[in-house]
Amino acid sequence: MKRTVIANGTVAAPYGVFRAHVVIEGERVVALADDDGALTGADEVVDADGLHVLPGAVDPHVHYEDLGHAEREDYATGTMAAAAGGITTIVEHPLTIPLPITAQAFAEKRDRVRELAVVDFGLWGALTRPSLPEIPGEWREGARGFKAFMPFSEPEYPNVDDAELLAGMEIVAGLDGLVLVHAENDAMMRANHARLQADGRRDPLAHHEGRPPLVEEEAVHRAIFLAQQAGVRLQVVHVSSPVSAELVAGAKARAQRVTMEVCSHHLLLDLDDLVRLGPYGRCAPALRDRALVERLWDHVLSGNADCLISDHAPYTREEKEPGWEDIFAAPLGLQNIQETVPAVLSEALHVRGMPLDAFVRFASTNAARIVGLFPRKGTILPGSDADIVLWDLDAEWTVDSASQQFSKNPWSPFDGRTVRGRVVRTLVRGETVYVDGEIRVEPGHGRFLPGAGALVPAAAS
Ligand SMILES: [Zn+2]
To answer: Residue 348 in 3-state DSSP?
Structure first.
């Protein structure tokens, strides 16, 4: 078995930051050592002197839209961008076509990702009206949880009404699975949009006015209540408002099993950026004003915001450009997976003073726990997968998607931003996937991570 030692680095694990050699045999970490005897007999020594050694980030909220819209991104380009951005595990959302709302469609999608991914991956199943009877089947095919949209989002993926959401939660509770909810109030959003369109509003801020914080906060409140009734574990995806985050904190204080995600763009961009970026800043929930962004950071620094996510949603420029004339013509979503972790790390560590081990929990460990992958993922311990990222935490660089991104149609809402902290090398299960600006493995290196209900044994995947 190949023995690799990452030598002389500073390990940043969820349980502390310390100097150590990391010893890898095959795909797993076997030891953390402080003496140079660990170097003897190594097949490969990676010198990490001056670098930090972090567990790979776990991004539980990614859209690649391959199957249906491979012109936007595919599982190869999308996971290469993830690896270059320090992410070693992704969980992809079910907005692919044909919709993975049957067990068979879910299995076909899983098999396609398996051929192309370069990082490890899980898949969320669908919680929609037509997929309710299929939830147990998707669970057996390896879905790790089920995603519901409370508001209208895409014509192909029906949003749930309250009765459907509750019914789905009860089914998932019976499996002891996870429900993920995109929480926005559909009726309020539709009424706002009708008013704005009657007023002839097409400017970027009209997008924010159609989906103000209350639209999210009310739905988060309702989702938490329904999840409590159903007794199901709930992840509130992409929380943009500190009021929503307070609702999650309140539920946690009552010992309800509720967790939350925050996006890089909700932490780093605000309404001035929405005006500047136009269609390239249109996402749901919308970007928020600076005062709310600051209060959202409080939840990151306190640890209440569990997971950092990209909510990577790739679109071509041709799809986004019409949004300059009419913001509502631009599809919802931002392409950002390669910059998400470095850009937020830069701000968290160097501007806001977040301790490095707390950042590791935010970007990696908590998501691994919520998704059900800890301690295989999300930490550096003997027995963990050797999913490791070497960081130069002080290197400064400027985001220039055209020359940097592996995404199929490079653009980024962070273009032009100065970032302090650079991914030097990314290993997935002991293998170097990314180093020096290059991908070093073939598509298919990534492995499917089936959920607890899977009939497919992990070894066969
Ligand atoms: Zn999303």
So the answer is: helix
